[in-house]
Q: What sequence folds into this?
């Protein structure tokens, strides 16, 4: 009986010790802690060379000045020839005054009292002759302007009047020249200056219809342009 009691006590003791060991053992975790995803970062840093530099501004182009222009009206070709000689000698540009209704040889017959020029001479209201244009490209770039015309009844051929009235000659030196078979310059230059109201008008020069190119060039060279 004593042996049986001792055996039972031994079993109880073993079971008690096993229970204590199991109670003190830490429980295993069934979940892992959450981890936040890393914030995405650029793979490369922007470099100075990748930035766009401001474009350099182009320097403003200044308008060319100091040029010379030869403006002319030619009824029969004599004034045109002199104008071209002047332009060559002065290194100048040319601008032709062209009436909208070009004068014919009959229109220019001053001996006929019923011709166009005769009627315009007798009636000043008819002298406002329309032109194809009065606008000169780059007009402001010219400092010196020659103005040529034939002499009609002692004055400048009136198609020139329309050009003069429609342009501003401020700051320009204006040199009139004329062609005729016998008439002189008369007051043609000063009358044009009065019409313009602006510009420094010079005395000018009259050429005969058959003047040579050498004589025209000598005159231009003597102006000291």
A:
């Amino acid at each position: 009986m004593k042996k049986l009691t001792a055996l039972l006590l031994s079993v109880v003791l073993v079971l008690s010790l096993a229970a204590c060991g199991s109670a003190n053992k830490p429980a295993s975790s069934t979940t892992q802690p959450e981890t936040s995803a890393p914030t995405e970062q650029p793979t490369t840093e922007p470099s100075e060379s990748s930035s766009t530099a401001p474009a350099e501004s182009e320097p403003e182009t200044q308008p060319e000045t100091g040029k010379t222009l030869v403006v002319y009206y030619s009824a029969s070709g004599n004034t045109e020839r002199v104008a071209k000689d002047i332009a060559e000698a002065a290194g100048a540009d040319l601008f032709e005054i062209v009436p909208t209704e070009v004068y014919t040889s009959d229109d220019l017959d001053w001996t006929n009292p019923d011709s166009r020029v005769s009627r315009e001479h007798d009636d000043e209201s008819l002298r406002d002759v329309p032109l194809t244009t009065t606008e000169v490209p780059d007009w402001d770039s010219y400092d010196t302007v020659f103005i040529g015309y034939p002499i009609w009844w002692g004055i400048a051929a009136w198609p020139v009047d329309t050009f003069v009235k429609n342009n501003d000659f401020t700051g320009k030196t204006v040199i009139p020249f004329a062609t005729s078979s016998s008439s002189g310059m008369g007051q043609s230059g000063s009358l044009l200056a009065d019409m313009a109201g602006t510009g420094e008008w010079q005395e000018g020069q009259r050429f005969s219809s058959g003047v040579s190119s050498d004589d025209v060039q000598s005159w231009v060279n003597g102006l000291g342009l």
Notes: The first strand starts at residue 67 and ends at 72. Confidence is low (pLDDT under 50) at residues 1-7, 11-54.
